[in-house]
Write a structure and sequence with these properties.
The chain is an alpha/beta fold and 295 residues long. It has 3 domains: 3-79, Orthogonal Bundle (Arc Repressor Mutant, subunit A), CATH 1.10.10; 84-161 and 268-294, Periplasmic binding protein-like II (D-Maltodextrin-Binding Protein, domain 2, 3-Layer(aba) Sandwich); 163-266, D-Maltodextrin-Binding Protein, domain 2, CATH 3.40.190.10. It has 9 helices and 12 strands. It has helices at 3-15, 18-25, 29-43, 59-85, 102-116, 129-137, 199-207, 225-233, 280-294; strands spanning 48-49, 56-57, 91-97, 120-126, 143-147, 155-169, 180-182, 193-194, 221-222, 238-242, 257-261, 266-274. The strands form 3 sheets. Strands 3, 4, 5, 6, 7, 10, 11 and 12 form an 8-stranded mixed sheet that branches. Helix 7 links the parallel strand 8 and strand 9. Helix 1 packs across helix 3 (29-43) and helix 2 crosses helix 3. The longest helix has 27 residues, at 59-85.
Length: 295
């Protein structure tokens, strides 16, 4: 049994495909398959059910994978410990970011992070929260920028800063004449929302408690905050946007932004990691760079 065999096994379990796993491991599919077959022969059990698409672990495979994850964590931690001993920040870090954060802050800290830590290879992916939790648990990403309190018990979250919510109101909506509004002032029939899968949608609905029992005049959902604001511009509607989006609103539309008063009208922006993560020095460096650049 070798470390490389365990890595290949974990890759197939994560991606559900021998060919995709081979691409991610930078080997040919026959080489990867041969190594896994050799591991199965040594253990005397089938670890993967190849008859199913995607490929899934067998019952024995699940047991071996649980141990393999712990073994690979300890193995990789050796490099981490030595890098810390030498005072180096080096290696690969895979960062996930939710769509309601990515457009507004990635460009503010990534250039500085790359400049400060030239020995770190940074890989960034935009994912919804549910996908981030899955990818963290499957060791497909190392860390993620998320809205705090959305990742569950198996994920550790480190709060970075508060991001307040604001209302973005159509000029033809009665609330446009106010400088600030309360959540209870919003006619829920006029609220346009992010689509299902965006955690900010759930936070907004929780903030507003529930949809009105009266039917909406029309229903519109989008995966993009920018799209929602454009819909508000040409209708009588209203939407909720995060503070980090404010600086990208054109000056001529700035009067459409209204302060929300009363209630928990904000979200925490956090760094999420698996409880068993090992890349402490790189993640600490990432956290410090984000705070320095956004302070």
């Amino acid at each position: 049994m070798t470390i490389i065999q365990l890595e290949y096994l974990l890759a197939v379990a994560n991606y559900g495909s021998f060919s995709v796993a081979a691409d991610h491991c930078f080997v040919t599919q026959p080489s990867l398959s041969m190594q896994i077959k050799s591991l199965e022969s040594e253990l005397g059990v089938m670890l993967l059910d190849r008859s199913r698409k995607p490929v899934v672990p067998t019952e024995a495979g699940e047991v071996v994978l649980a141990q393999a994850r712990e073994t690979l964590k300890e193995y990789n931690s050796i490099k981490e410990v030595i890098q810390q001993f030498k005072g180096e920040v080096a290696g690969k870090i895979r960062l996930g970011v939710i769509p309601t954060i990515a457009p507004y802050i990635l460009h503010k800290f990534i250039p500085e992070f790359v400049s400060r830590y030239p020995k770190v290879e940074l890989e960034v992916r935009e994912l919804h929260t549910a996908s981030i939790v899955s990818e963290l648990n499957r060791d497909c990403i190392d860390v993620a920028l998320v809205a705090g309190g959305t990742c569950g018990d198996e994920i550790t979250e480190y709060d970075l800063f508060d991001d307040h919510f604001y209302a973005y109101v159509s000029p033809t909506n009665p609330l446009y004449k106010r400088s600030n509004i309360q959540i209870s002032d919003i006619d829920m029939r006029e609220l346009v929302l992010l689509s299902t899968g965006n955690c900010m949608r759930d936070q907004v609905l929780e903030l507003c408690q529930s949809r009105s029992s009266h039917p909406a005049r029309y229903s519109f959902e989008s995966g993009s905050l920018d799209t929602l604001m454009r819909i508000v511009d040409c209708t009588n509607s209203i939407t909720i946007i995060p503070e980090m989006a404010l600086e990208y609103i054109p000056k001529e539309r700035s009067r459409q932004v209204k302060t929300l008063i009363r209630g928990a009208s904000s979200r925490k922006i956090s760094l999420a990691v698996r409880r068993t993560y090992v890349k402490h020095s790189i993640i600490d460096a990432l956290k410090k760079t984000i705070l320095d650049c956004l302070s």
